[in-house]
Amino acid sequence: MKATEVPEITGAYLFEPTPYADERGFFCRTFDADVVRSVGLDPDAFLQDSLSRSVRGVLRGLHLRSGAGEAKLVRCSYGRIFDVVVDLRPDSPTYRNRAFFDLSGETQATLYIPAGCAHGFQALTETADTSYRIDRPHDPAEDVTIAFDDPELAIPWPLPVTSMSQRDREAPSLAEVLKQKES
């Protein structure tokens, strides 16, 4: 497994496993504490694992947490997703940068998203399972959502949106969220 720093987002990493394939299919390690530790992250900091299943065109996000934020490891374990990270850490040298990833069950690559970054994805296959490993217990009172179609972010979502949550559909713009943070 190799770890590669994401140039667009300071502190973000892409962990790419080495699958061993044969006539039965494949096997690969999707988490390795030593590799995580080698880039300065604490592998024991992750407290929750979650899984979402989406159908083609479903869009989830853009989400982040207020307060101390939430770091996470994200992997598409089955199918394929278009994954988006937006750096919203005011002190970061990559503040407001965006990065896009094609995550799939074929590669089993895992994306580390630092606390303070917004995250969202769109399912590109009929079924897409997305796994999350999160470093804090979920507190719904800290949930923040940003409009997926905010023109300031200009995210090139690859498919028309077929479904999204009410919360995501009614999300405020990035400017509105930042204004609320300042208050």
Short description:
With about 180 residues, this protein is mostly beta strands.
Question: How would the blueprint of this fold be written?
Answer:
Layout: E1 2-5, E2 13-16, E3 20-22, E4 25-27, H1 33-38, E5 48-54, E6 59-65, E7 72-78, E8 80-87, E9 98-104, E10 110-113, E11 117-123, E12 128-134, E13 143-145, H2 166-169, H3 174-182
Antiparallel strand pairs: 1-2, 2-10, 3-4, 5-12, 6-11, 6-13, 7-10, 7-12, 8-9, 8-11
Keywords: Isomerase
InterPro entries: RmlC-like, RmlC-like_jellyroll, RmlC_Cupin_sf
Region (Disordered): 164-183
Please tell me about this protein's structure:
The protein has 183 residues and is mainly beta. Helix content is 10%, strand content 39%. It contains 3 helices and 13 strands. The strands form 3 sheets. The protein has a 6-stranded antiparallel β-sheet with strand order 1-2-10-7-12-5, with no helix packed on it. A 5-stranded antiparallel β-sheet has the order 9-8-11-6-13, with no helix packed on it. Strands 3-4 form a two-stranded antiparallel sheet. Strand 3 (20-22) and strand 4 (25-27) form a beta hairpin. The protein is globular. The termini are far apart.
**Structural class of the helix and strand makeup?**
mainly beta
N- to C-terminal distance = 43 Å
Q: Secondary-structure element sequence?
A: EEEEHEEEEEEEEEHH
Would you identify the regions where 5 or more consecutive residues have pLDDT less than 50? none
Molecular shape = globular
| Beta fraction | 35-45%
Mean pLDDT: 95
Strand order of the largest sheet: 1-2-10-7-12-5
Helical percentage: 10-25%
Radius of gyration: 16 Å
Quaternary class: single chain
